[in-house]
Amino acid sequence: MQPHPNIHQQDTHHRHPSPSPIITEAFHDAIRLPDTPITPSTSNPFPEPQSQLHSHPHSHSSDIPWKLILPILFLRFGDAMSYEVIFPIVTDMITSFQVAPDKIGLWAGMAEGALMITEALCATTWARLADKYGRKPCLMAGFMFAISGTGLVGFSTSVGKLILWRAILGMNPCGVLNKIIASEISNPVNRDKIFAIFSPAFATGTMIGTLIGGELAHPYGRLPHLLGGSSEFWKEWPYALPCVVTTGVAIIALVVSYVYLIETRPPSHSLQIHTTAEKNDHHRAISAALKVPHFALITIVFLSYQLTSFSIEGIFAVYTYTDVDLGGLGLSVDIIGFLYAAAAFSYIITAPLLLPIMKKRFGAVKSLQIAFLAWVGVTMTLPLSQWTAIHWRGGMWLVLICQTGLRCVGGFGWPMCDILTMSAFDDYPELLATGSAISLIAGAFGRAFGPAISGWIYSLSTQHPVGSLGRQSSWLAMLAISLPPFFLSRLLPSEKKYKEGYETVPLDEESDVDVGGESEEVV
């Protein structure tokens, strides 16, 4: 058989995972037609200019390409605000719906996590559409539709409507597409620096969103006239103002990104195949992505990380608001918002400085293990904060400061997981969108079920007397959730072995490649 026309004959070695290649040129042909001009009017409803990414002077530099990355950071900021604005007020809001006390934590967790379930269900669809029509049009259209749910959250009159509007917000494609674009903008030399600021951008949105959520709720009679302090409208809808303000900020981020965001994968390089073949190749791409060395294990670790961190964040939202005699801290909504903002601010300050240092000194894997241990530390301080809330109110604030520092270090695990995930696809860029979608789905399930589980367990624990095992069940459950991820992370190979996972082997003179159930001989 004649040599495959797309294999570079001058290469004597080809990097691929053992024991056989995951991505071959035959696979490329199976999922896309030869590169030919696409007529925008017939094949692409969102015509976009050709990408200027690879001709950019910083495309292979160790510097951060600020002009390219800033639009993504703006969108990530708006995305985080939309997600986090509800955390300081969700328990108070659900309590106002006259929900049974032992169900408040459950419904609060479901309201927090409904967004993530929808996000997980839509992830592969957004990845597929972004491959077909381009990153930018899908990101703009999806974000514009989804942020409408943020404003409507504040006008909820029941738990069902609250969960519905949060679910609509989950149709936002930012979670998967922002990460893809950031990875395509970056290169192996500057990726650590880019993801060191990529994650704090989300934390900045978290800080502002939670601060707005706590400070602007219940504005009537509390805030100045210009902020709605004398408006009967905001008196009727006490939780609407922070959600409306957050929606306005998200719209500004959308406009800025529409103007300045570049297209990293124009439609002319997209999948142009029939629907049936597209579905078959989509399933084949998922299978291939899961066979990329270490990716499946990284995804499991990431899921466990998200389950741990958001379980603890979920219980934090409930127990800080709950009365002291029920095992809570008895804090007001505005103080809870300030605590969330303080934790996010500490992360914003420390992450760009400490993340590169930690990765350079310990490597991504050991840094991830340090983050897991920090979440274990947060869990261990939960009963101490409950005890000091009753017996030593000043000591309670010292424990909260300690928890803020530990939550900050624990937050480093997210960008470390992102770095490991994106690095796994350096040799397989065609699978980057699929792999990112799989990672997002795994993480979304952790973020969706974590707050619901922890909030429900905590609400149940408040029904037991002080000092009983039932009252301690909430933090014991959190300890049981936070320990396994640390041991899972120890299964990840070291940095050296991680890189050696891609074996350099001589190109076989003849090899059979299974494509769509058919065997093709490649010389």
Structural class: mainly alpha
Radius of gyration over all CA atoms, rounded: 24 Å
Strand order of the largest sheet: 1-2
The proportion of strand residues reads under 5%
How many domains? The number is 1
- Determine the CATH topology: Growth Hormone, Chain: A
Order of helices and strands: EHHHHHHHHHHHHHHHHHHHHEEE
Query: Spans with pLDDT under 50 lasting ≥5 residues?
Result: 1-52, 54-58, 268-274, 498-523
Architecture per CATH nomenclature, i.e. the level-2 architecture = Up-down Bundle
| Oligomeric form | single chain
Helix content: 55-70%
Query: Got a strand count?
Result: 4
**Name of the top-level CATH class:** Mainly Alpha
Biggest sheet character: 2 strands, antiparallel
Coarse morphology: globular
Organism: Tremella mesenterica
Pfam families: MFS_1
Membrane topology: Multi-pass membrane protein
GO molecular function: transmembrane transporter activity
What would your notes on this structure say?
This protein has 523 residues and is mainly alpha-helical. The chain has a single domain, classed as Up-down Bundle (Growth Hormone, Chain: A). Helices cover 67% and strands 4% of the residues. The strands form 2 sheets. It has a two-stranded antiparallel ribbon with strand order 1-2. Strands 3-4 form a two-stranded antiparallel sheet. Strand 3 (511-515) and strand 4 (518-522) form a beta hairpin. Helix 5 runs antiparallel to helix 6 (135-146), helix 14 packs across helix 15 and helix 15 (333-391) crosses helix 19.
